[in-house]
Design a protein that fits this description.
Helix content is about 60%, strand content about 5%. It has helices at about 1-5, 10-20, 30-35, 40-45, 50-55, 65-80, 85-105, and strands at about 20-25, 35-40. Strands 1-2 form a two-stranded antiparallel ribbon. It starts with a helix and ends in a 20-residue tail after the last helix.
Length: about 120
């Protein structure tokens, strides 16, 4: 994966970094906020010291920048969520319910009705 990320243009890598965010499947505004993390929010707050030290704009396509975000933000949130059995159970219940609902729907849309044939004056 890393070679593919390194092949991106600098502009696209920055755009990709701006859009990189993670949130675990939880409901409720307080829980959603506490489990949300954004790469650039991290990079420009907790990670700013490192960015200033290396004198490079943080990019998720750079392995070192991405790894710091994973270790500093994602893993701690996952560990905290993993301890919240009711949240995990509720989340899995929603996933299973949605899967069941989707499985009960047909995958193929019905054919549109053909318009009635118009008969000419000699029909």
């Amino acid at each position: 994966m890393q070679p593919n990320l390194e092949g991106l243009s600098c502009g696209f890598a920055r755009l990709f970094s701006i859009g990189s965010a993670l949130s675990f499947e939880v409901r409720g505004l307080n829980d959603e906020v506490s489990y949300f993390t954004s790469f650039y929010y991290y990079a420009l707050t907790e990670g700013i010291r490192e960015a200033l030290h290396v004198r490079a704009w943080p990019r998720i396509t750079r392995f070192e920048d991405r790894w710091r975000w994973i270790v500093t933000c994602i893993v701690p949130r996952f560990r905290r969520l993993d301890l919240q059995t009711p949240l995990v159970d509720a989340s899995l219940r929603r996933v299973f319910d949605e899967a069941r609902d989707y499985a009960s729907n047909p995958c193929v849309l019905p054919s549109p009705a053909l318009p009635p044939r118009v008969r000419g004056p000699h029909a």
